[in-house]
Amino acid sequence: MREPVVGIDLGTSTSAVATVENGKPRVLPNRSGRSLTPSLVGFTTEGVRVVGDEARLLAVSRPADVAAATKRFIGRRWDPMLVHEARTLVPYPLLEGPNGEVRARIAGRVLPLTQISAMVLGELKLDAEAHFGRPVHKCVITVPANFDDNQRAATKQAAHIAGLHVLRIVNEPTAAAVAYGLTSKFEGKALVFDLGGGTFDVSILEVESGVFQVQATGGDPVLGGEDFDQAVVRWLLAQLPLAQRETASRDMLSLQRLKIAAEQAKRELSQGDEARITASGLGDHGPGGTLVDVDVRLSRAEFERLVEPLVARSLDVTRQMMEEARVAPKDIQIILLVGGMTRVPLIRKRVAELFGKPPVVGVNPDEVVALGAAVHASEIVAQDGETLLIDVASHSLGVGVYGGGVRKVVGKNSAIPAVAREVFLPSAGGQNKARIVIYQGESDQAEQNVKLGEVLLSDLRVKHRADTPLEVTFELSSEGTVSVRCMDLTSGLSEALRITQRTELSADEVKALRAEQAAYHADQAHPETRELAEFEILLEQGDTLRRALEAAARRSDDEKERTATVKLVEDLRALVHLGRTAGLSKNRAQMGDVTVRLGTLVAEATAGHPARGPSGDPPVGPDGASSSAA
Ligand code: AMP
């Protein structure tokens, strides 16, 4: 029996977790029996954490106590523009963290957005564990194709905090194409149009003999269902009497009520021609303020007029991506719609008009990404390599040059993994240091791109610029993460830098958050899952001790002691292996036996030899030390 492995679609509005069972991918129900979990985290007045559907309920009465749409801001650098963007979208304030990362003030606490995503992921982990009846660690997580390096890294960090081991980050459209391609046995050129709650992604893939090759990708990271909701909110505000219109547009509770009503109406208009919208208690909630109710009807035609500019924006991005890829609409055989927003009839209609053919039917736009992630996860674990994913760089990468420009080294839509090299000359003679600044983005102007980091080469002896060529090598992994090396070709001196994720949380903070999440998880997990997780930790400790003993044996020059230590190492190795098999098959008798024998071995190993004891951090809780389990 294999350890369970899951695919996770961590969405802006909703998330889903899926797995492959009996050769078929399926979305796992959450513990309330639903396939989609709202990506919401809130805190009650008693300080109790609520996630998903419970948080959605809380948001009705206490919007500022619930974090919503955090995916829009994760991994981004805090700046006043972002705060401005957030003000119109979410009812909680964004603050700057110590590394320039974004934090949210929710119910009186300041939380890094990475932690909020970790809490959503933690909930999905609990749901999957309730399904399997055992701990779940391994997963594939999807991200929008246009997520940059920082956003990908922050998502991975969130997974780590949640006690998950990410096998691979996969782009959402690619995952969708995998799920569809495998079930329909489709071969040819597919366009994936993915409009979710907060982001828009569009990709072209070529599917041939089990190889899914992304050819081009584009999108708008700040275009999604939230913007459609806001268009309706503005219309609703215009229906209020002038006095309340003013106050309601500045009142968080009123705005949240209108947003919930607007989103509901948007969904209804995907089915019917008219939606009735009611919301009460709108206006000034301060002392002496007056409140009004709204009860209006919104026709589908009026809704379409309100959101037409947003739909046009998504089509412009699609056209531009196709132009860049030199693909004409007639070259596309299959159009796959992904994301809840593609249920909006106007979007389906406009996409069909652009391509002269309707999108495929029978694909659940809310589930297809998680299903594809699950397929890919199970293939990675089985290592049968049935499908091969070849993705592309979603952004160009370049080096800052004198005068504020950027020289591109890896072009957008280059196939990844990729390695690219370029030789630069220092900006002036006489320098003994060169600072190579790395940018991600499409602009020729450095300041309009995202700065990823810098490599500092010191000890240069530059008399003349031309004497000191500097070679910069970029490596883009298959997950879209970047590393850079810079070499002084004259001296051979080289400086390698994995791009420092400036918006990542510090190692100490991650450790503390991971421990906090592990404690929460232990509290929420089913007793059986908890027991298995605790057993895994015990095995992990046994394995840590085994490694410490192995190192001690290598260092020892006392033959007798070395022989005894090597024997202990072998006994521990065999016992941990036996324990892992017992845990996977939930063989309780064997687990008990292993626990006792492990205790004896640990006592034997450390008796009189404190230096042999396991080194490293003590376990942080039932889930904390388990990332390398079985
Ligand atoms: P996703 O990020 O893929 O979960 O997309 C969620 C977005 O899709 C949210 O903005 C939802 O309001 C929207 N959505 C979900 N279902 C529908 C529907 N039936 N009609 C219109 N919009 C929908």
Explain how this protein is built.
The chain has 630 residues and is α+β, with helices and mostly antiparallel strands. It contains 15 helices and 28 strands. The strands form seven sheets. Strands 1, 2, 3, 4, 11 and 12 form a six-stranded mixed beta sheet that branches. The protein has a six-stranded mixed beta sheet with strand order 18-13-14-15-19-22. The chain has a four-stranded antiparallel beta sheet with strand order 21-20-24-25, with no helix packed on it. The structure holds adenosine monophosphate. The site of adenosine monophosphate (AMP) has 17 residues, from helix 8.
Total number of helices: 15
Radius of gyration: 27 Å
CATH classification, class level of the largest domain: Alpha Beta
The 3D shape can be described as globular
Q: How many domains would you count in the coordinates?
A: 4
- Helix-residue proportion: 25-40%
State the main characteristics:
630 residues; alpha+beta; Nucleotidyltransferase, domain 5; Actin, Chain A, domain 4; Substrate Binding Domain Of DNAk, Chain A, domain 1; 6-stranded mixed β-sheet; globular; disordered C terminus; binds adenosine monophosphate
Please describe the topology of this protein.
Blueprint: E1 5-10, E2 14-21, E3 24-27, E4 37-38, E5 41-43, E6 49-51, H1 53-61, E7 66-67, H2 80-89, E8 94-96, E9 102-106, E10 109-112, H3 113-132, E11 138-143, H4 149-161, E12 165-171, H5 172-184, E13 188-195, E14 200-208, E15 211-220, H6 225-238, H7 242-248, H8 252-268, E16 274-283, E17 291-299, H9 300-325, E18 334-338, H10 345-355, H11 368-382, E19 388-392, E20 397-401, E21 405-410, E22 415-416, E23 418-424, E24 434-440, E25 450-457, E26 470-476, E27 482-488, E28 494-498, H12 507-524, H13 527-555, H14 559-584, H15 588-606
Parallel strand pairs: 1-11, 11-12, 13-18, 15-19
Antiparallel strand pairs: 1-2, 2-3, 2-4, 5-6, 5-7, 8-9, 9-10, 13-14, 14-15, 16-17, 19-22, 20-21, 20-24, 23-26, 24-25, 26-27, 27-28
The protein binds adenosine monophosphate.
